[in-house]
Amino acid sequence: MSGTATNGRRVVVTGIGVVSPLAVGAELTWKRLIEGQSGIGRITHFDPSDLPAQVAGQVPDGPTAEGGLTLSDWVPVKDQKKMDRFIHLGLAAAIQAVEDSGWKPEDEDDRCATGVMIGSGIGGLQTIYDGSLTVSSGKARRLSPFFIPSALINLISGHLSIRYGFKGPNHAVVTACATGVHAIGDASRLIQYGDADVMIAGGAEAAICSLGIAGFCSARALSTASNDDPTKASRPWDKDRDGFIMGEGAGVVVLEELEHAKRRGAKIYGEIGGYGMSGDAHHITAPAEGHEGAFRAMKAALRNSGGLTTADIDYVNAHGTSTMADDLELDAVERFFGEDAKRLVMSSTKSAIGHLLGAAGAVEAIFCLQAIRDGIVPPTLNLDNPARESVIDRVAHVAQQRKIDVALSNSFGFGGTNASIILKRFKD
Amino acid sequence: MSDIADKVKKIVVEHLGVDESKVTPDASFIDDLGADSLDTVELVMAFEEAFSVEIPEDAAEKIATVKDAIDYIEKQKAA
């Protein structure tokens, strides 16, 4: 038996979709990412003047062909007001992924073997804010009947299943900033266990609203030092980093059982090579010293990788949010890789797009697949003066050409939840 | 067509995203204009807001067509 372990059923990725501050579209986002572009700018979704943090990674409006968001290309106008923005962005990424995969269930068996697991860290925050204003102004009876289904996190999965007739498992993950990795990892296990042959999986987030920014500001999590120079604000591992930059967007993949993908001649981006989880049991927002939870998540991912070792892993897409916790993750990665750390490259793509919270892990897993496909490692922007030295090459400023066969992506969330996923080049 | 009928028609077009030509007096919101039960709840709220009338739930349940809505609102306004 080769590949991942359970039941011998191997899981490959056959479609990708991205909505990010760099572009709507997986390939345009990737192109701009490896060119070293930044998607961070001053917040325009609302007036942030009253708040200490005033920059974010917002999805650009514009024609679809130029990588902008034209919502009516993804969601019919009459349905748009029934969904919060996080659902809009999630659907735009999911539709891209499904179309990219070419998978169209032909009969009832196919439909029942195709499921959806797209989550979000926070869900419809702007919708909840607006709804509470309606109620507090004495107009409770005027609250839209679409208020609840607009805000519920599992409604991306719901809407997508209705659109395409996917009748398999319909699920959604909510684990803060680990959502995207948990969704892809858990969905791959549903395929391994035979609950589905195809799963559409990922995460979406749209929390750049006054309530979202104010909340993370109060938690002292956001950068406030670079309001006048937004593209410099997200600087993972740099000594001048001072908090994360909120991003919005979505990442969705089509996961497919290998034989199913082969039978229909699907294009294969790569294989799910391992997946591990852990809990910190330490603090609601801060990781433990040495980030031992991250260490255990990476160890767990390797344990069910079908025999991979740290020597096989070429690239780590770090959680690296541009906060004090960056160096704790670095500690954990160094300890985990030991001697193999010397040949490792690791970057944080949050330097270019900010932290997409529940979408981050899914978008970053897609970057890993693109890095494997193209032999290019995306850069860590703004890493001018590392806060501490490391034997690990953190790909400062510019992308590197390098053969990548196996990549690992880390995501950690509030509450002390950790997830690591391994993506590897597909070999039959 | 009365002002009320005009305004009702406009609200229906806007909320259900249908072509104006389909919004005939006899058109049923659910059977002809593609609304679901939540759409009709929202539609009634929009009528209440636009015409400053109260439409109690038992009355709202009987509003199935464009004409039903126009008639109900005209009656409220005349009273």
Automatic annotation (TrEMBL), chain A:
Listed GO MF terms: 3-oxoacyl-[acyl-carrier-protein] synthase activity
Keyword Aminoacyl-tRNA synthetase (UniProt): no
Keywords on record: Acyltransferase, Fatty acid biosynthesis, Fatty acid metabolism, Lipid biosynthesis, Lipid metabolism, Transferase
InterPro entries from the UniProt entry: 3-oxoacyl-ACP_synth-2 (IPR017568), Beta-ketoacyl_synthase (IPR000794), Ketoacyl_synth_AS (IPR018201), Ketoacyl_synth_C (IPR014031), Ketoacyl_synth_N (IPR014030), PKS_Beta-ketoAc_synthase_dom (IPR020841), Thiolase-like (IPR016039)
EC number(s) recorded for this UniProt protein: 2.3.1.179
Source species, domain of life: Bacteria
Transmembrane intervals: none
UniProt catalytic activity: a fatty acyl-[ACP] + malonyl-[ACP] + H(+) = a 3-oxoacyl-[ACP] + holo-[ACP] + CO2; (9Z)-hexadecenoyl-[ACP] + malonyl-[ACP] + H(+) = 3-oxo-(11Z)-octadecenoyl-[ACP] + holo-[ACP] + CO2
Protein family: Belongs to the thiolase-like superfamily. Beta-ketoacyl-ACP synthases family.
Alphabetized NCBIfam families for the sequence: fabF, PRK06333.1, PRK07314.1
Task performed by this protein: Involved in the type II fatty acid elongation cycle. Catalyzes the elongation of a wide range of acyl-ACP by the addition of two carbons from malonyl-ACP to an acyl acceptor. Can efficiently catalyze the conversion of palmitoleoyl-ACP (cis-hexadec-9-enoyl-ACP) to cis-vaccenoyl-ACP (cis-octadec-11-enoyl-ACP), an essential step in the thermal regulation of fatty acid composition.
Protein name (record): 3-oxoacyl-[acyl-carrier-protein] synthase 2
